[in-house]
Amino acid sequence: MASETRPFLKMNGLGNDFVVWDARQQPLRLSRDAIAKLGDRKSGIGFDQMITVEWSSLGVDAFMRIHNRDGGEVSACGNATRCIGRLLMEEAAKDVVTIETSAGLLHAFEAAGPRSVTVDMGKPRLEWDQIPLAEEFADTRAIELQIGPIDDPILHTPAAVSMGNPHAIFWVDDVEAYDLERVGPLLEHHPIFPEGANISLAHVFDENQIRVRVWERGVGLTLACGTAACAVGVAAARDGKTGRKTTVHLPGGPIVIEWRESDHHVLMTGTTEVEFEGEVDLETLSWRKTGPGDEPREAGAAS
């Protein structure tokens, strides 16, 4: 019997990259090991997250299932939501779609600029037991946590926010001055975070301008993380470091975050890209490209 092949899209939002499967007509379930093998950047396709688009039990445009590169399933991914929102809007010729996720319903809108999408990420969760944290903190703007010597810690007192997944934000003077590849795993798995955490280093370098590097839970260093950008924007506004609308500069590019005052929802706006089309043999996990992606942008084009 011939092995089954399935088509996929390779997409990214500011370099945060995904393999996207359409499983609405034919269900797809891959083992954790198979996902990790496909996600390997040397031997597989390589990605930060694997996204499976499924029918929504709530009757909205689609359900988005998210797995990190290590094969673990997670509830939220902001950049992926923008990418899936774009695909669904193009497919249905609509300018707004609703996407069901394990973290709740998210709404995606067309935004100004080529391939740009805004996602309403809902309200941030700011209470210690909502994030969640293992200990009670009355104020999650700066929790008691440090790494390194007690009298001279490397990093300390992060803000904690949940955007459907837990985030810790350390305010620093220089985001490049720390070996995030070394301290990221220690902080991700710190006992204070019972579900692990995404770790961000953030620096406000100008009015409403924040530079950020992210160690993503279950992924590692990443060029961009949409929920981390949202969490940083919220944490900055809560602490009076910025206003409620900021531009977060990630290694993959800028993303605009607005923590709306009227309803406290977080809006995230940024670009999306289809890198290429491909197909995978589900038995051998071998894969090949079958088609091109988006046309290259013109130099100086708006983003």
From TrEMBL:
It is an enzyme of class 5 (isomerase). Substrate binds at residues 16, 49, 68, 78-79, 165, 198, 216-217, 226-227. GO terms for molecular function: diaminopimelate epimerase activity. The active site is at 77 (proton donor), 77, 225 (proton acceptor). The keyword Amino-acid biosynthesis applies. Its EC number is 5.1.1.7. InterPro entries: DAP_epimerase_AS, DAP_epimerase_DapF. The record marks 167, 216 as: Could be important to modulate the pK values of the two catalytic cysteine residues. Keywords: Amino-acid biosynthesis, Cytoplasm, Isomerase, Lysine biosynthesis. Its main location: cytoplasm. It catalyses: (2S,6S)-2,6-diaminopimelate = meso-2,6-diaminopimelate. It is found in: Cytoplasm. PROSITE patterns: DAP_EPIMERASE. Pathway: Amino-acid biosynthesis; L-lysine biosynthesis via DAP pathway; DL-2,6-diaminopimelate from LL-2,6-diaminopimelate: step 1/1. The keyword Hydrolase does not apply. Pfam families: DAP_epimerase. Transmembrane segments: none annotated. Catalyzes the stereoinversion of LL-2,6-diaminopimelate (L,L-DAP) to meso-diaminopimelate (meso-DAP), a precursor of L-lysine and an essential component of the bacterial peptidoglycan. Homodimer. PANTHER family: DIAMINOPIMELATE EPIMERASE, DIAMINOPIMELATE EPIMERASE, CHLOROPLASTIC. Belongs to the diaminopimelate epimerase family. HAMAP family: DAP_epimerase. This is Diaminopimelate epimerase.
